Amino acid sequence: MKLGYILLLLLNLFSLSVGAQVVSSDDYMADKELQIIRCLQRMDVDYSAEYDAWQFGLPAPDSIKLRNQYGNEVLAYEICPAIPIGIVICISGIDAPSVSAYFGHAREFYKLGYATISMDVSSHITINDKRYEEVKDVQAVIDHIKSKMEYTNLPIIVMGVAMGGTVAIRSMIESYDINAVIALSAFSSFEDYFAYNRKGADPRYELPNVSMKDIMDMSTADSITLSKLCQVKGVDHRPILLMQSKKDRFVPYAYFSRLARELRKYTNDLEAFVVEGDEHYICHDFINPASDKEYLEVLTGFLKRITSNIPVSAYRKLEDALAI
C-alpha cells in the first residue's frame, strides 16, 4: 500500500487537507502504515460487518449518492418517519463502524420522530492526490437535506464516533446549518492529538516512529491553522454532547478533558457523558443501543431537548404509527 494512500487516510480521519508525499523507502512506508493502523483500529471490532434495516424493524432505507464540492462520491442511507421533527446525520469512522451499524440508533431516533442519514465519507470510496476535507462530505448531505420540503426548518444534529466525532465537531465549526453535535471518543484534529501525546502523555497513545515533521509535511498551511484547538470557538454556543470512556486505548481521557474545557469557553451548552473502562463506542453494544439504558437515556434526552418546542401531538402520532 502506497504511503500517499495511508497519509490520505490519516488526514481524512480528522478532516484535514492532504497532498501526496514522496518517500524513498518501502520500509518507511510499511512502518508508517502499521503505526497508523494500530493507532486507529480496534482489533476487537469486525470492520466488515454489514447490517440490514429490516433486522431492526425499520423500513427499507433510501440509498442516496451525492457529490461533495470536489466531485467525490458520498454514499448514505436515509430513513425518514412519517412526521420528521429533526434529522440526525451519522458518520462512520476510518473503517468502522459500518454506516449500516447505525441502524440500531436509527430505530431509536425513528421512535422519536428523527430522520437518520448514515453517511460514508468519500475517502472510503475514492482515493486520489486531490486535497479535500470530509466536512465537505457532510455539507453535501446537508445540501440534500435542505433540498427536501419535508425537512424545511427542522434541526440538524451530526453524530459520529472517533473520526466521525471529529468530523462532526469540525463540521459544526464550518456550518451554521448544524444545530447540535454528538461526538463519541473524538479529537479536535490529528495534529492536535499528535502534538498533545508528544508532550509526555501515556506512551500507549504515541506513534513513536512518526515525527511532527511527518505530520507537518502531510499538511497544507491552511490545514495546520485550522487544526489548532483554539478553532473550536466556531461552535458558537450551540449544543454539544461529548461522550468518552475513562480507559479508552486510543483517546486519552486527559485529552477528552482538555477538549471539553476548551469547548466550554465557546458554548454554555456542553454536556459530557463519561463511562468507566475501555469503551471506545461508549455503548456496550453499539449495534443495539437499547441494551445500554443509561447511554440511550442520555442520547435521546439530548435529542429531545434539541426539539423541545415540537408539539407533543407529533410524538403521539409517531407512537401510534409504530404500534400498528
Structural write-up:
With 324 residues, the chain is an alpha/beta fold. It is 37% helix and 15% strand. The protein has 11 helices and 8 strands. The protein has helices at 3-13, 26-40, 103-112, 135-146, 163-174, 190-197, 212-218, 221-227, 253-264, 293-306, 312-323, and strands spanning 62-67, 73-79, 86-91, 114-120, 156-161, 180-184, 240-245, 270-275. α5 (163-174) links the parallel β5 and β6. α1 packs parallel to α2 and α4 crosses α5 (163-174). The chain starts with a helix and ends with a helix.
Strand content: 15-25%
Class derived from helix and strand content: alpha/beta
Contiguous low-pLDDT stretches (5 residues minimum) are 1-26, 40-45, 124-132, 219-226, 312-319
Radius of gyration: 19 Å
Mean pLDDT: 76
Number of strands: 8
Largest sheet, described in full? 8 strands, mixed
Topology (SSEs and partners):
Layout: H1 3-13, H2 26-40, E1 62-67, E2 73-79, E3 86-91, H3 103-112, E4 114-120, H4 135-146, E5 156-161, H5 163-174, E6 180-184, H6 190-197, H7 212-218, H8 221-227, E7 240-245, H9 253-264, E8 270-275, H10 293-306, H11 312-323
Parallel strand pairs: 3-4, 3-5, 5-6, 6-7, 7-8
Antiparallel strand pairs: 1-2, 2-4
Please supply descriptive tags for the structure shown above:
11 helices; disordered N terminus; 8-stranded mixed β-sheet; alpha/beta; 324 residues
